[in-house]
C-alpha cells in the first residue's frame, strides 16, 4: 500500500467514525492533524472559515 493510499484510508476511516457520532472533522493535510468537534447541547457551531450556507444575494 502506498503512502498516499494509506493516508486516504485513514482519512476515510476518521470521516466514517465522525459521521457515525454526528461530529464535525477538520483535517490539516499538510501537518496531518485531525480536530474533531463534538456537537454541543447548546447548538453552537464549530469554528469555521467558511461562509454559512444559504441563499446568495448578488444584488
Automatic annotation (TrEMBL):
Residue ranges of the region described as Disordered: 40-59
Protein name per its UniProtKB record: Uncharacterized protein
Taxonomic source organism: Rhizobium hidalgonense
The organism's taxonomic lineage, starting at the top: Bacteria, Pseudomonadati, Pseudomonadota, Alphaproteobacteria, Hyphomicrobiales
Amino acid at each position: 500500500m502506498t503512502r498516499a493510499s494509506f493516508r486516504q484510508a485513514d482519512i476515510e476511516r476518521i470521516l466514517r467514525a465522525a459521521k457515525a457520532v454526528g461530529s464535525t472533522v477538520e483535517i490539516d493535510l499538510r501537518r496531518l492533524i485531525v480536530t474533531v468537534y463534538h456537537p454541543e447541547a447548546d447548538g453552537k457551531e464549530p469554528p469555521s472559515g467558511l461562509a454559512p450556507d444559504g441563499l446568495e444575494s448578488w444584488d
